[in-house]
Amino acid sequence: MDKPAMQTRCFTGWHMTGILVAFFAVVIAVNMVMATIAVRSFGGTVVDNSYVESQKFNLYLAQARAQDRLGRTDRVTLDAGRHVRLVLKDGAGVAISGARVAAVAEHPLGRAPDIALRFDEAAPGAYASDRALPAGRWQVRITVDHGAQHLLREVM
Q1: Is pLDDT above 60 for 156?
Q2: Is residue 6 a part of any domain in this protein?
Q3: Which one, of 38, 31, 136, lies nearest residue 78 by Cα?
């Protein structure tokens, strides 16, 4: 018995067109998905004008050195209830009592509104925020005023 003749199919221009269209459709679809994710995940600018902010860099360094010369130490923690805790001590290790402490919690890249925090002195030199932070990552800028001394602390 004879085998039936095999029919071969030719690769035509329509096949190549279909392959090219499918390839570019996949590339465009992936790019659209990635662009959408990028736009939705970036909440804004870190600073409004990076050039102007860079001009203040030496001022920030001078302020940091002045604070280091005071010898004060601080310890910032987040308790189980997500309240910010701050312990302040002077250069001799004595608790700094009677300071005015305030803070602003900012979500990185502005995905959530800022939260103003007020601190109450729970024990000598130990301060606790009046409200808890929501879940997630927050950058906290703490301002401490104690007499003529001013301390600015940034905590992640």
Answers
A1: no
A2: no
A3: 136
